Here is the input.
Amino acid sequence: MVQAASVALVLVAGIDAGDLSAWLPILLALGIIGLVAAFWFATVASHLHRDEVERMRAEFARERENLRVKAEREKTRLVRKSNKTVASETRRAESRANRKVAVAVGAASAVGLLMMLTSFMTLGLLVLTGAGSALGGYLAGRKWLPARLLPGNRSMPPETSRRRLKAPSSPQSPK
Here is the structure.
């Protein structure tokens, strides 16, 4: 385009090849055309560069947000898995403890009955009373544990499922 403008300017001017003073205005016009074209190309290149930088910035922001969302999902998945594992282990431990208490109370009751059958009436009644008291204490302790803290209830974090609430104490009188 610059070349076409330069050729057109030289042809329209109709200058003699031997007259050097006539070439000065033509050369000045050709220089201005070249300078304007250079600034125009620089502006076009600058706009293209700015558009490319903006496109890359938007692409990187999108990628960064996708990575953030992916990391958050992974974190949530790991927390859920960890909570599920802890709850499962807690239920398993609670089940084992319940079985052990049942075996202990059953064994104590069997020993008490055996003693009663073998004429150790007082000692047998004491053992049966102790086994019944142990079972009653175990059940009363479970009653004091609110339902929201029972193992298997997923509404509370697993670390609170082992905490037992204390029985309300009687108010102390001021001395």
